[in-house]
Amino acid sequence: MQKVLIVDDEDVLRMLIEDTLEDLEEVELHTAENGREAMTKLSMNAFDLVILDYMMPELTGIEVLGLLSEEVKAATPILMLTAKAQEGDRSRARDAGARYFMPKPFSPMELLQIVEGILGDQKKH
Amino acid sequence: MIRRSISNMSIKKKYFHIIASLITVVLLTGIGLFIYIHAEQTRMNHNQEVLQNKADTINEMAVTLNDVFFRVRGYSLLKNSNELKQAYESLDKLRDVLENYSALKLSPEEASFKEHLSTFVDQYQNVTLPKAIGFVEQDDYTSLRALAAEGNTQAVNEFLAYTKQYNMRSDKLLSDMVDLSLKRANEFTLLAFGLCTLLLLLFTLMIWRILKILIDPIVRLEGATNSLAAGEAVMIGKLHKQDEIGRLYEAFLNMAHSIQDKEEELMMQNEELLAQQDELQDQQFRLERSLGEIESMMKALDQSSAVAILSPKGVFTYANANMSEYTGYKNHELIGFTFRLLDLKNMEAARMQQIVGKLSTGGVWSDEVQLGMKNGAPVWLHMTIMPYLNDEGQVYQYILIANNITSMKNVQQKLAETLQKTEQTKIMLERSNQLNHDITYTLDKQEFAEKFIEFMNRQYAFDSSVFFLVKDQITVVRGVPQENVDRYLGSEGGDMLYRMQTEKSYITRRPATIREQGIAPEPVLSYDFYSTVVNAENEVIAVFCGTRIGYSFNDEEVNEIQGMMNRVGLAIERLFMYEEIEHGRRLNRDIVNNVNEGIQFVQMDGGMLQMNQALAQLFDYHEWSEGDLIPLEGWSGHFTRMANESEELGQFYQKAMSEHFIDSSSMKYSIGKDPLKHVDMYAIPVFRRETRFGTLFVHRDITREYELDLMKSELVSTVSHELRTPLSSVLGFTELLLSKTMKPEKQLKYLETIHREAQRLTDLINDFLDLQRMESGTQQYCQQPLNLSELVMGVIDQYKVGGTHNFLFEDEASNAEVEVDRDKIVQVMTNLLSNAIKFSPGASEIKVSLHNEAERIIVQIQDHGLGIPKNQIGQLFQKFRRVDNSASKRIGGTGLGLAICKEIIEKQKGSIGIESEEGEGSTVWFSLPVLHSPGSRHEDEPMKPSPGKYQKPNVMIVEDDYSLSLLLSEELKGKGFRVTHHYHPQQAFEQALKTPFVAIVVDLMLGEELDGWDLIRMLKNDERTEHVPIVISSALDKTDKNMMDNVEKYLTKPYPPNELTGTLQEIVNIRQGTGEVLFPDSGHTGEQE
Prior knowledge:
Chain A: Pfam families: Response_reg. The complex is a heterodimer of chains A (about 120) and B (about 1100). Chain A is built from 6 helices and 5 strands. With about 120 residues, chain A is an alpha/beta fold. In chain A, helix 1 links the parallel strand 1 and strand 2. In chain A, helix 1 packs across helix 6. Chain A starts with a strand and ends with a helix. Chain B has about 1100 residues and is an alpha+beta fold. Chain B has 6 domains: about 160 residues, Four Helix Bundle (Hemerythrin (Met), subunit A) (Up-down Bundle); about 110 residues, PAS domain (Beta-Lactamase, 2-Layer Sandwich), CATH 3.30.450; about 140 residues, Beta-Lactamase (2-Layer Sandwich), CATH 3.30.450.40; about 110 residues, PAS domain (Beta-Lactamase, 2-Layer Sandwich), CATH 3.30.450.20; about 150 residues, Histidine kinase-like ATPase, C-terminal domain (Heat Shock Protein 90, 2-Layer Sandwich); about 120 residues, Rossmann fold, CATH 3.40.50. In chain B, about 55% of the residues lie in helices and about 15% in strands. Chain B is built from 29 helices and 28 strands. A 6-stranded antiparallel sheet of chain B has the order 2-1-6-5-4-3. In chain B, strands 8-7-11-10-9 form a 5-stranded antiparallel sheet, sandwiched between helices. In chain B, strands 13-12-16-15-14 form a 5-stranded antiparallel sheet, with helices on both faces. The longest helix of chain B is centred in the N-terminal third of the chain and has 89 residues. The radius of gyration of chain B is 84 Å and the shape is flat. The two termini of chain B are about 155 Å apart.
């Protein structure tokens, strides 16, 4: 079973992502509604993918990335999901350690494809 | 030293010492001799005595022994015991004497004698005598005689012989002793004599010595005296003695010297006297010669000067020819007359007195005097008068010498006159110069006019004058009241000016006014001189008018004044020009200084020629003031240092000021830190006649634009973020719906979500547009007077219906009349209430209260929800600010609500604020200004509708069905009631205690704790509320009959609303007892709804 962590402060979006990914086989979906909760879950489990919102109260996505250790970041692909689609946001996210980037609003099918791709790569490793 | 001191001692002392020591020696020798002789004599006497004593003792022994034998014989003969007894006694006595003798100093012979005798005595006493006694008693005289013969008698005889011998020897010794003493006495006498002779000798020697010492110097003195008397030099050496003789010697020497000195002096004096005598003779000769000279001088004086001799009383006793010539009096006309004959001019009595006084005390007087000649012609004399005093100091005559200085005096006078004229000319010239100077350097017209008129008055002695500058209407007046001139210029000035157009100057003559006439007894004429100044266009620009009282103007003056006026004309033109230039300059400066942009003009060499205040403030640089030229190094360092981008600014300046820079260019820099200012600066090269002249720099403070820009991009970013989130949901779920097959329930759920998010998008966009409109100022506010408590209640009612929260409404405001935009305030209330509901998710109570506070009404909405962290309260009214925590995030919202509320409230002169404690809840309040002053509705006073002033009756509805209560209150308000809502019986009761209600409408089914009946009971049991009529509005049928007494009316739901109003109106009528319904119809009370 592969594990995916969905971090978003908006209930509706969490639900949307969950529902998008629910049909994936052998994938376990976990959610966190803020950065702090995400940190807790990341410290307890190894995930094959983290879908991380950029703008969150308390801890932003970038801040979460800053707190994660390099090993975790190397082992865990991170998909940054953000409404901030301006120039610089993408590079900032990449510098912080996010390998994938997706602007909001996004297409669930596209997300599904990307996630499938990432998880497939992970499985090979 | 000692020797010296002795020689210095006085003779008296010295010889006193010698004599004293001599006497001491004699005395001591005498005493010594006496003591010696005395001791010798004593010793001899003693020896004599000892000898005598021994002789006596031996004599006594012989006597005693004889006595013993005598007595023993007597006994033996007479047998008388008495005799025996006495013999014994004598024997004892003999023993005593023997003992005494032995005590004496004894020679050896004497000692053996004594031994012998004592042995004998012992023999005799102890042997012989007892035997003898025995024989006597036995009368054995034979034995006795035998015994006697045995030797006793012989011993005795020996002894006696010895005694006799001894006596003789001691007598001889005594006589020897006397002889010795006599011999000694003779020796002493001889010694004494010798001593005396020695002393006498010493004495004689001494006296001889004294005499020698005394007489020697006296003899020398005598010799010296003799030689002194003979007039020879005293040649005696010094005597090195300090005693009387020494001093006498010294005194004599001094005397001798002084006598010799005096003698020399006398000699010299004598010689001097001789010399003087010679000199005197010489002088006499010279005197004679001088006398001759004086005589010739007198003759000369007589020729050149007037000489006269006056008696002590001032009578002429002599006068020479010159005297007659100078005075005009003949000689005989003078002699015998006093000096008073002469007519002395300018000679006051006091001065005369002074002169006479001076002369009579011997002083010489000399002065210049003017006198009249006999024929009356004036003549100036330099006169000297000398008094001559006799031995008693009395004046016996005066000599008068006088010289004629008339011609010299005349020349002097002429000279003085010329000098005075020159002086006057000089003053005139100086004044002219001053005027020229003033004209040149005065830039103020008023000041110029003052100076000019001052000059004219001084120069031409005007009694009064006016100078009038036509264009500026400046009038300067001297010597007449200002108002006179103003009046003149106002009325007749036109005529004068008209005349001036054709005539450049004219003089008028007129009788003096009363004021000008003054105290003059005769009628006086006044002369007015009018003169104008015209410009190049021949327009009159200034008028001068001066008045002289009593005398007119000569041609010279007129010409001068005209010339002066021409110069003044030029000066005034110049002043006009200066003023125009100055005005232009000031205008330019003001413009430059009032421009918001900082402006700076820099020459090609970098010198800053001009900068304005805006720039000075921007760079906090105040070194430059108008007219300064600050070199490049003086300002550029400061400027570039001030900027945060020092290097770039420096480079820009450098580039812009270089020769090659011909197009304008610009840069941006920032300055300061807090506050940070952003400046847009551009440089423009400035050319003058195609030559590069300098560079103009303009610094524009673009901080606001910069910040706006920043805000705008931030806003765009935020808005796009805010929009993307709901859009994500809409797009995402739509796509899921389209691409997946799912159950209908899920489809429905998705659609609902899509709908909600789309709604959120719409709200967001609406709010955003609202805010945009408000901020841009395009929002229209439709102000209308209304009652805020009704409005608030209306909004609450909407939320009560089907709401999850309990609302408490507390209306403590005595004045709730405000003039606001109704819809906007409703929007605010809705926003605040929905916030309160949203952020207190525990379904707790929300309290809304109104109260007045100094001309304002305050609305408070208090919840017991999440609260707001302290550090975020301040940001709440900013756009897109929401309390950042996960709990509130879940609640959602656009984040624009409070910003909109703030905008609305502030636009209507109100204010808004939040107090909050995180976890405890928040209180949002806003205040608005009330229309009328409070007091129109007093809480404690019962409602009394008074004629002319209608007050709305208060009704309280206690009802938990909000829609019904809303319906009822609409109905009641429409009929002119004021309605207060409550749904909780306890609060309704408390409200009833505070507010006087005309009636209370009560629903019976209220809550769980208390119901309508409880409320009625409470109201009726309290004396403050027992009179208030109760109307029951209930779905229940009348059940509790007991309580019905307390109830005015029982309405059973459902009932038409107007039934309630009818009932209430009835009640009010009954209460007022008038029977007349005072309710205005609804149309009349437009403000109520």
